[in-house]
Amino acid sequence: MKNKLLLTTAIAGLTAIAGIANAETKVSGNLEQTFKSSSINGTGDSGRALGAEYNIGLSNSADLDNGLKASFGFNLESNQDGAAADTGVTDSHYLTIAGEMLSFSIARDNGQNLSSTVVPHISDQAGTVVDGDTLGNVGSVDAHNYDHVRLDAKVAGGTLTLRYAPDAGATQINASSIQDTGKSQQEIIYSGSLGVEGLSVQAGISKSDKATVADEDDEYKKFGVAYNFGQFAVGIERAEDHAGTVAATVERTRDKVGITFAASDNLSFGINYQETESKTEGTKTASDEEIVMVGVGYNLGGIAIDINYADVDNLGNTSGSDAEFLQIRTIQKF
């Protein structure tokens, strides 16, 4: 009888697994190829390179017996920078249990985040096109990059996210291992329309506990608003971060504005301006960093191409370190 029960249990288990396997699994991916060049006057540095990034993802979903819905998936990413850590790693993963108004997730690099912006732009933001523009990355104050748990609630025409990452220093943790760098992170983010058609709002705060007694707690705050009216979209944003050590606290404020124009369904133009002020122990640096970036994007159907050119004064808040960056990127999705 015992063997019969075990056999019955095994068959039931195999049936359940077969049911999951027969569910529709979606495969998605993309290939990004980029040419980028730079010229930095203050140091005389310049460079140019071709690079690539490859992504492939699997996703699935299931209706649970209790009326909730589960969705789950992961994405594999490979970068062409020669680093073993970037070769075929799991870039993101998620398991989400969702109801009508509320969902719970266990994930990494998934969900809404403060790395994004409502300010309209063509493809990449200035922080990607311009090397050295790192406001918001000091102290790793973007908890969605790390393994985390979160709640998402549908409110006021948008989504309110509460996120907790127990370890803000580990990005590739095995299923049954422990790693503790001494930092945890918490985030609260809202993004949505507030019920107004054409309006986009993003507001949030991220906090990271200090790793040692010599460190300061890191904090990052952002508020942005944008409006889309026909072919034009405009937006403005302010971001602030506070990081560093007890002996040298760094505070930075960045203001950003952008406008895009959709000339057709396939062709768009954009211009962005941002200015960053930096203070160390309350003393302002001599120069603010200023970036003017213009971009154009064209969709050829199966291939999209975008070109961004950025002119920078006082890169990294360093007086006289003026720079130019050019990025041309193609994107193919499947």
Task: Write structural notes for this entry.
With 334 residues, the chain is mainly β. The protein has one domain (25-333): Porin, CATH 2.40.160. It has two helices and 17 strands. A 16-stranded antiparallel beta barrel has the order 1-2-3-4-5-6-7-8-9-10-11-12-13-15-16-17. A hairpin with a 2-residue loop joins β10 and β11. The longest helix is centred in the first third of the chain and has 21 residues, at 2-22. It starts with a helix and ends with a strand. Mean pLDDT is 84; it is low at 1-22.
Arithmetic mean of pLDDT = 84
CATH classification class: Mainly Beta
Number of domains: 1
Structural class, by secondary structure, is: mainly beta
Main sheet: strands, sense, barrel = 16 strands, antiparallel, barrel
Order of helices and strands: HEEEEEHEEEEEEEEEEEE
Counting H and I runs of at least 4 residues, what is the number of helices? 2
Strand content: over 45%
Overall geometry comes to: globular
Largest sheet strand order: 1-2-3-4-5-6-7-8-9-10-11-12-13-15-16-17
Give me the CATH fold name: Porin
Which descriptors would you attach to this protein?
single chain; 334 residues; mainly beta; Porin; 16-stranded antiparallel β-barrel; globular; disordered N terminus
Layout of helices and strands:
Elements: H1 2-22, E1 26-40, E2 45-63, E3 69-79, E4 89-98, E5 102-108, H2 126-129, E6 148-155, E7 158-165, E8 185-192, E9 199-208, E10 218-229, E11 232-244, E12 249-262, E13 267-280, E14 283-284, E15 289-299, E16 303-313, E17 323-333
Antiparallel strand pairs: 1-2, 1-17, 2-3, 3-4, 4-5, 5-6, 6-7, 7-8, 8-9, 9-10, 10-11, 11-12, 12-13, 13-14, 13-15, 15-16, 16-17
